[in-house]
Amino acid sequence: MCYTLRTMKFTSTRNKSLSVGITQAVLECLPEDGGMYIPCETEDLRRWLLYTDEDTSFNSIAGSLTSAFIKDEFSPIICETIVTRAFPFSPEIKQLDEKLFLLELTHGPTGLHRDFGISYLVSFLETTLQLKGGHAVFLDMSTGELGASLAVAMRGKKNIKAVIVYPAGTVRGLEESDLVWNGGNIYPIEVEGTADDCNALVRSVFKDSAFVRANCLTLANTVNIGRLLPQAFFYPFAFSRIKNKVHSDIIYALAAGNYSNVVAGLYAWQFALPLNGFVIPAKQALAVDSVGNPLILDSLVPLGERDSADPSQASNLERLEDIFSTNQLMMRHFIFPVPVTEKQVEAAAKELFVKYGLYADMHTARAYAAAKSGGADRGDEAATVLIERDHPSLSAEFVRRTVGETPEMPESIKKSLQPFGAGIPKIKTVEELRKIISSLS
Fold first, then answer.
1. Helix (H) or strand (E) holding 286
2. Residue 178 DSSP SS3
3. 190 DSSP β-pair partners
4. CA atoms of 413 and 289, how far apart (whole Å)
5. CA gap 141, 193 in Å, rounded
6. How many other β-carbons are positioned within 10 Å of the β-carbon of residue 300?
7. In a 3-state reduction of DSSP, which class is residue 14?
8. Residues 160, 153: contact at Cβ < 8 Å?
9. Which of 49, 113, 190, 363 reaches 20 to 30 Å from 280, CA-CA?
10. Distance of alpha carbon 317 from alpha carbon 285, whole angstroms
């Protein structure tokens, strides 16, 4: 069910006079000023959020929020179509004890949380391009995971193609029928070089804005706001499942990654979702200062003196900065980076297994270690939602080393990890890459 809400406009982290609709923001993916697209404003959905419960499906939650994003561009029926096509799978939440819950984002085809964002982005573009006309081409670098997820999401799509740049020998999860020259919509390219070389090629292409526009290029990583926003659906879903079991603060513990899930969670909070912060393992990019406050090192450099956002390696720290730009002190009340050691991570994995029978991948164990170590003055009554981003079988060696057992891998994940030989010459230069992209037009 989709609720009729006021549409959301999008602006840039570096130019607040910019205001565009979601379709433009998704297709362009990067504003010309070098910043990143962000919501201009958000709806107050408190009454609706408090109405949801355990019987509210993930698709209903996703449909309602989609309606908030694009109501003035497309009808609620189109919102529902996008979501229905995107999500034949759903998150799941388990109660581990009175104050600890596990939010599993592992039930997509590749077992990775990115399945949700990629499937939604592909569905959004395919549906809207069917209505408005035109086409789009993803240009992304992958060492296997993103490409495998895209392959599943794009099967049968008519208005989208993907050029995926891989370091030689890392193509995985494709089928012969996925390939452009076999009637599919994916063009895998192997590069004689490293992941850094692949990233450099993608960056070079995106520096030529005229070429990008002429070939309708966009991105499938979280630089693209259309890939990031659906991650905001996770938090209302979790809240709907625990709201009648918890009568205290709610803290989310999660691995840092590229901070996309933290930013998406804060967007959910701006929709008036009740939550009280995020515990994350500290990293160099987002650490803690001498008195325990969160510190984003990039913030030491003014926006006008920074390089443009990197299209090839997504970092959402600039979006995180923007959320708290009007009140930096608020960040210390929502973001709790906690330094953890590898010894603490292994101990956390063992505790999750012994106490709850849970196989924890390395990211989940790290998040649990951060939650146990503190970093937030939240009291003993707060509930913690531990986010499991990736299926534990993808960290089989870590799990075996920490608990002595190996989790079973679902067949769909096994399929996504199968090496694939595209049988095409490898490339070295950006000119070769540009030629391939131009041939798709």
1. strand 286-288
2. helix
3. 166
4. 40
5. 12
6. 7
7. coil
8. no
9. 49
10. 8
Residue 390 CB neighbour total at 10 angstroms: 22
Interaxial angle between packed helices 342-356 and 396-403, expressed in degrees from 0 to 180 and rounded to the nearest 10: 80
**Kind and range of the H or E element at 384?**
strand 383-388
Among 382, 196, 370, 170, residue whose Cα is nearest residue 287? 370
Which DSSP category does 407 fall into? P
388-409 residue pLDDT tens:
999 999 999 999 999 999 999 9
> What's the full length of the chain, in residues?
441
> At 95, which helix (H) or strand (E)?
strand 92-97
pLDDT tens figures, 230-244: 999 999 999 999 999
Closest by alpha carbon to 143, among 25, 9, 313?
313
pLDDT at 376: 47
Alpha carbon distance 53, 133 (integer Å): 38
- Residues 6+ positions from 156 with CB-CB distance below 8 Å: none
Helix 234-242 and helix 58-70, axial crossing angle in degrees, nearest 10: 140
- Predicted local confidence at residue 423, as pLDDT: 81
pLDDT for 421-440, tens place per residue? 878 879 999 999 999 999 99
Spatial CA neighbour of 377 closest among 333, 331, 338, 330 = 333
Query: Residue 90's CB: how many other CB atoms inside 10 A?
Result: 17
Per-position DSSP letters for 23-80, written without gaps between them: HHHHHH-S-TTS--EEES-----HHHHHH--TTS-HHHHHHHHHHHHHTTTS-HHHHH
> What is the model's pTM?
0.94
Q: What is the DSSP letter of 107?
A: -
Neighbours of 356 (CB within 10 A): 16
Q: Within the chain, which residues score under 50 in pLDDT?
A: 1-6, 375-376
User: What does the block give as tokens for 37?
Assistant: 């697209």
CA torsion angle for 25, 31, 34, 38 (degrees, to 10)?
-40
Q: Take residue 393 and report the two structure tokens written for it.
A: 């079988």
In sequence order, what DSSP letters do the residues of 354-381 get, joined into one string?
Answer: HHH-----HHHHHHHHHHHH--S---TT
Q: What is the largest CA-CA distance in the chain?
A: 60
Alpha helices in 249-341 (DSSP H): 260-270, 317-323
Query: Cα–Cα distance between 153 and 230 in angstroms, integer?
Result: 15
Q: Which two tokens stand for residue 180?
A: 């452009």
* Strand order through the sheet with 10-12: 15-20, 10-12, 37-39
User: What are the structure tokens assigned to 8, written together?
Assistant: 């959301």
